[in-house]
Structure formats: C-alpha cells, structure tokens
C-alpha cells in the first residue's frame, strides 16, 4: 500500500517532484537505524548559499517540493533561509526532525515557511529512547509536539518499522491520531548506514514485512479520513501494474526503445525547463554537495552532478546525456527482479534500487532466490 | 499525556488483527496469501475495507467488510471474477438514512493452512 501515484508525464514514485536536502550529518542523537550515519561529531555542512541556488535551479527544472532532513535539520543554521527561499519560489516545504528542538522560538523563526513537519517516532517511550540512545528522547519529542500544535504547523510522524517494532503499530496509530498528526509514514528499516552495524538483526524479513503491510492497511482503514497512512512497501502485483512508479515503463520518451534497450541519444534534444523533474521525480542533495537520484546513498555512478563543481541548472544536462540511460537500465533490471513470480510479495523499492546501484542485493532479494545469470550490476 | 501511560487499548478490529498476527502461528505462505488478497482487492479499486481473519488459532480464511455507494457496486463484479478464493458474498442496504450505501461482506478462503506452532497453541490456551 504505497501511497505513490503518478501524474501525467512524471516518472517515479511520488506525486509531486521533490528535492530532498541533507545539508549536514550533524545530529544531537546517534540512532541505531540512521541510514545516513548522522552523529553529534559531524560538522561538515553545505554552504546555505549553494543550497539556495540549488533550490532555485530545482524550481526552474520543475520540482515542487523541498524536504530538509539531515542530520538534524534544526542544527543547521541555514534552515530557515532555505525554507523561506523555497516558499518564495512557490514550493511546498517539509522538515524531518527528531523532535528535540521544537521550542517556541525555533518554530517562530520558521513561521510561514514550513508546510509540514515530519517527526520520527520509534515506538512507545522505552523503545523510542532505546533506539535513540537517549533517556529523554521521547519526553523531549512529546513536549515538542505540544509546541507544534500550538504553532498551527501541520505535522506527521515517521516510524522506522523493525523486526520487533511492528507489534507497536497499533499503538503508534493511536498515538499519532491522538496527537493530531496528519500523516503516519511507516518505513521498513533498511540495511543502510548505521543499521548495518547496530541493527542488522532488526531488519524486517518477508514475514515481518507482510505483517507491517497488513497492519498498515488496517490503520489506513481506521484513520484514513483524518490521518493519511503511508507504508513504504510496494506489492509485487502493484509494481507490475504500474512500472512507471519504478522508472520501468519502457517507453521511448524515457530513454528506452521498443525493445526496452536504452537509447543513448535520447535527451540530447530535450533541454527545456522542467525536463529533469518529469524524468526524475526525486532528487537528493547529499551533505558533500553531490546530487543523486531517488534516495540518499545512491551510487555516485548515477550522480546528477556535484554542486561544488557545477550548478544544477547546467549539471543536469550531463546526467541526461551520459547517465540517465544507465539509470533507466538499472531500474528496468530491478523491476524485472522484483516482479518475478519467485520474488518477494512486498518490497521497499528505494532500498532495493539503492542497493542495486551498488551492485548489492538486500536480503529480501538474496541471490539464491534469483536466477544467478540475472545478477544486478551497477 | 504521560509518557508512562501510553494510549489505552480499546477493542477494535486492528487489535484483533495484531493478535492474530502475533499469536496465530501464521506462516510465510499464509501471510503472503493475505498480502496478495489485500493488495489485489485494493488494486481493483476498493480502498477502504476491514479485514477479519477467520479461524482460531489457525487462520483458514478472511472476511472482507466494506461499505460501497451505489455507483461502486460494479467493483464487486471485478473483485469476484478476479479473486479465485472468493467463497461468498452478502450485500445489504445500509438502510435509512443511507439508502444508496450498501454493506458488503465478502468471504475469502481457504488461506493456506497454517501450522499450529507451540506459541499459537499457548495463545489459544490463554484465550480459553
């Protein structure tokens, strides 16, 4: 039950083209499941002016939403300036936070420039504090929620579902609803970042993914009229029915010819504004200035550009001409794997395609269940 | 809200589903079949429905309960024709003051027989 839908002319798994910004990996916490490995000691951060330019370019290229994450975005000094700039360009804005810094003064500083706050919740207090490695994490987040409600800013909650936390999903639905959340996003733990070393045994297996999916569906039925439930899992049958969600539609216009072979010449003539957003609905700015497709951690072999060398408004053309066909080829191979009859019933496409970009398999697509001749390679 | 007293539990269908998933001993193939059924019905346009597992402790089927408006009734034909495990359907008007709304109970089964694990047997004993 992925909330993904496509709009006419847009490829990929989101409704509106989105620029995700990770301006730094500085975070006050060191969560066991953090896919970016953010931590209290990391101080490298992007120049806010460089980020603002990227936002301007992204708006020109058709992106409609800016989403700031991190690291903890409230520790990044350029946050409000970036959000204000995005709003001035007519974009929607979102901030994903651990909820530690939701004090009144900070929120007043964001007045009118953030459309939605997404707050991470790992489960009931004990579970939340354990995952966050901080005894006061839940209380701080809870106190912050009260301030957010008073501010009138819409907010949602994001839960990283693990092999054990799925049993808290019903509690989580009630908690989010009673707190006034507009969205509950349930995202299965990925074998990425710090989770590789600290929470590998908590990565959901197929059975747990099925339970997460079924419970998410029950929650959607219960709360759907007031709180959107988004489960970041895609059913194999849904994927087969909507390959465009996974950049696998195989149309000539998207760089594949009738035989599903990538056409390297495609794109040379397509340079009008909004082309990039139509072809790549999720663009991710990483803390070192590199723009990648789809998700944090995507292989740099498919990078859009390095903003420290070239601005997005110029760099995207190189991607379009030199790497986009490879990107589509990769997505097509991933699609063929995940939609095989022997493939998993459910999968988190972002995790699968990021792993595939590095030539790896997530456990759910272990080589033994796949045809060895069809191994994914970057 | 106190952090030491998480939200109290009411009796509700999602809690029943949670208990089933926790204690019924459903194995992978049964779970996959549930997922296929839910995804299939959802994919055919029915977006909001309740799902009740049938059978204690081993789940042997499902009851799908939903409310449809008159113009949504053709969805049922699609679902019935494309869901081979559909066993029965009961449709009745929701009644005054909603004459154009129908409650639909669809029975699906059998789901692949689940093995009764020691954990499931223990849960059943507790329930008795």
How would you characterize the overall build of this protein?
The complex is a heterodimer of chains A (378) and B (128). Chain A has helices spanning 48-60, 79-88, 104-109, 125-132, 137-151, 169-179, 195-198, 206-223, 236-241, 275-279, 312-322, 324-338, 349-357; strands spanning 18-21, 65-68, 92-97, 116-120, 154-161, 183-188, 228-231, 234-235, 282-285, 290-293, 305-306, 346-347. Chain A has 378 residues and is α/β, with parallel strands linked by helices. Chain A is globular. Chain B has 128 residues and is of the alpha+beta class. The longest helix of chain B is centred in the first third of the chain and has 16 residues, at 28-43. The interface between A and B is medium-sized, with 35 and 31 residues.
Q: Whole-number radius of gyration of chain A?
A: 20 Å
The total of helices of chain B stands at 4
Lateral arrangement of strands in the main beta sheet of chain A: 7-6-5-4-3-2-1-9-10-11
Task: Tell me about the largest β-sheet of chain A.
Answer: 10 strands, mixed
Discrete helix count of chain A: 13
Overall radius of gyration of chain B? 17 Å
What order do the helices and strands of chain A follow?
A: EHEHEHEHHEHEHHEEHHEEEHHEH
Poorly predicted spans of chain B: 1-11, 113-128
Q: What number is the mean pLDDT of chain A?
A: 86
Q: Provide the residue-averaged pLDDT of chain B.
A: 70
- Biggest β-sheet of chain B: count, sense, barrel? 4 strands, antiparallel
Main sheet strand line-up of chain B:
1-2-4-3
- The total beta strand count of chain B reads 4
Q: Structural class of the secondary elements of chain A?
A: alpha/beta
The total of beta strands of chain A comes to 12
């Amino acid at each position: 039950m992925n909330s993904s839908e496509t709009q006419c002319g847009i490829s990929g798994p989101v409704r509106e083209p989105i620029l995700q910004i990770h301006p730094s990996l500085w975070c006050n916490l060191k969560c066991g499941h953090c896919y970016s490995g953010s931590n209290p000691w990391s101080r490298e951060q992007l120049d806010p002016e460089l980020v603002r330019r990227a936002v301007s370019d992204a708006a020109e290229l058709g992106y409609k939403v800016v989403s700031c994450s991190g690291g903890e975005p409230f520790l990044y000094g350029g946050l409000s300036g970036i959000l204000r700039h995005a709003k001035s360009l007519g974009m929607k804005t979102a901030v994903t936070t651990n909820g530690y810094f939701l004090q009144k003064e900070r929120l007043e500083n964001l007045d009118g420039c953030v459309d939605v706050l997404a707050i991470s919740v790992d489960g009931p207090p004990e579970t939340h504090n354990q995952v966050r490695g901080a005894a006061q994490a839940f209380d701080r987040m809870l106190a912050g929620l009260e301030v957010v409600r008073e501010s009138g800013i819409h907010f949602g909650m994001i839960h990283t579902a693990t092999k054990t936390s799925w049993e808290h999903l019903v509690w989580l639905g009630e908690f989010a609803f009673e707190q006034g959340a507009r969205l509950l996003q349930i995202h299965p733990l990925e074998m990425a970042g710090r989770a590789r070393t600290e929470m590998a045994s908590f990565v959901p297996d197929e059975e747990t993914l099925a339970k997460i999916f079924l419970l998410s569906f029950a929650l959607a039925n219960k709360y759907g009229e007031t709180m959107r439930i988004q489960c970041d899992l895609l059913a194999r049958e849904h994927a087969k029915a909507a390959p465009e969600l996974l950049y696998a539609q195989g149309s000539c216009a998207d760089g594949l010819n009738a035989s599903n072979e990538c056409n390297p010449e495609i794109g040379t003539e397509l340079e009008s504004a909004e082309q990039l957003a139509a072809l790549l609905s999720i663009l991710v700015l990483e803390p070192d200035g590199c723009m990648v497709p789809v998700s944090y951690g995507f292989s740099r072999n498919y990078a859009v550009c390095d903003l420290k060398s070239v601005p997005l408004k110029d760099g995207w053309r190189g991607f379009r001409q030199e790497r986009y066909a490879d990107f589509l080829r990769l997505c097509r191979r991933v699609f063929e794997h995940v939609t095989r009859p022997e493939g998993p019933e459910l999968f988190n496409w972002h995790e699968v395609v990021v792993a595939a970009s590095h030539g790896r398999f997530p456990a759910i697509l272990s080589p033994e269940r796949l045809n060895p001749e069809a191994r994914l390679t970057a | 809200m106190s952090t030491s007293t998480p939200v109290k539990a009411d009796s509700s269908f999602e809690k029943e589903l949670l208990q089933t998933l926790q204690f019924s001993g459903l194995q992978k193939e049964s779970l996959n079949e549930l997922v296929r059924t839910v995804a299939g019905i959802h994919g055919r346009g029915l977006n909001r429905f309740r799902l009740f597992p049938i059978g204690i402790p081993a789940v042997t089927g499902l009851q799908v309960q939903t409310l449809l408006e008159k113009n949504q009734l053709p969805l049922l034909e699609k679902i019935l024709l494309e869901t081979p495990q559909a066993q029965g359907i009961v449709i009745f008007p929701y009644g005054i003051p909603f004459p154009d709304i129908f409650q639909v109970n669809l029975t699906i089964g059998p789901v692949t027989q689940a093995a009764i694990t020691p954990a499931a047997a223990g849960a059943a004993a507790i329930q008795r």
